[in-house]
Amino acid sequence: MKFSASVKHSLGIFSQDHLVRKSLILARFLGLALLVGSMATSATAQDYVFQTIVTNINMGPSQGTVNLPADGRNISFPDSDYKLFGSALGASLAFFNVLNTVPTDYTGAHPTITDDGSVRAEIISGENFGSNQLSLDEKPNGLFFSGSINYANPQNSALWVKITATARKPSYSATPRYVAGVKTLGYPSDGITCGANCSFASVNRTVIEWGANDSSQLGNGSTSNTPVPTSLPTNVTGSLSRISSGENFTMAVGNYGYVWAWGSNDKGQLGTGNFTNSTRPVQVPGLVNILRVVAGPRHCFAISTSGQVWAWGDNTYGQLGLGDKVSRSTPTLIPNLTLQRDWEDYLRAIAAGRTHTIAIGADGRTVYAWGDNSKGQLGIGNNLPQLSPVVVSASLSPWQIAAGDSFSMLLAGSGKVYTWGDNTYGQLGGGTVGGTRLLPGLISGPTTGYRIAAGTSHCLLVTDNGGKCWSWGRNQKGQLGDGTTVDRSSPVGVNVPVYSWMQNFNSCYSMVAAGDAHSLLLQNSGQIRSFGNDLSFQLGNRTDTAP
Question: Given a cut of 60, is residue 224 above it in pLDDT?
Answer without folding.
Answer: yes
